[in-house]
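call fold(seq) -> tokens
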Amino acid sequence: MSKIVSKLKGKQIFLGIFIGVVLMGSISYAVDNLSSESVIYTKQDGKLTTVKQALDELINSSLIEIDSLKEHVKDYKYAYLADMVKVGDYVNYDAGTWDKTKEISTTPGEFGGYTQGQSKNSSVACSYPTDLKGWRVLKVEPSTRTVTLVHAGQPECYYHGANQLNTDTVEKLNQKAQSTYVNSKYASSAHAMSYDEAYAITNNKEATENTLRAIGSNYWLATAYNGSSSSYVLWGVHPNGIIFNGSDTHGNSYGFRPVIELKSNILTTGKGSDQVGNKEAWQLVEMK
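ret:
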């Protein structure tokens, strides 16, 4: 605000200070505590800008333009998602619903465990049921304003056969994530959670109370245990979060967890309810 005070004269000085107070007050009230420096609004020319940038641009502008900013910021209340979220937060990402019913399979290489009309954002029971559902922040890259999400639970089950090559399963898991969970409005790509992603949550393989990894059910990781294309062993995660090699557990139908790469510069309007009832999920807005 110091720039406005130093540049504007007479009544404009007073009005500039007044508008600054009104703007900051309305932002704090209407945008669920979004940072005022990150808040974005749409200018009359259709371009997006932050409130701070807009005020700087208006130093030598007319009072009519300043009044326009004051009015429009009440209606356009956006911030970059990557500027607001932290790892573990819920995000209102919608992967859609299942168009058919498929039972849990005992055939190697097959998926199942869901019913027609069921939300892909919810969880199913594979080895064990889990109450976790929705999508959570797995990683944030502030420099590129990109956010990576992971399914909070397990949206379907996968049967990895005792004699099924691990490379075959890794390929199937990644392909299923890409073909089934990408909402093209917000997401650029998807894959199945890997060993490195699961390990990075706590930086060890031990049991944890961190529900970003310990979901209360077994699930496969899309990583071969020893990297050999001739091996049948995958990495997986126990209900308590321990990362295990599946040498004694292949031949089971466990869950898997899709990981979503959101497009860069996705916006948010603050927190609200998501598709499966989480009350504190960040809402998404597509950058035009």
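Residues 83-282 form one domain.
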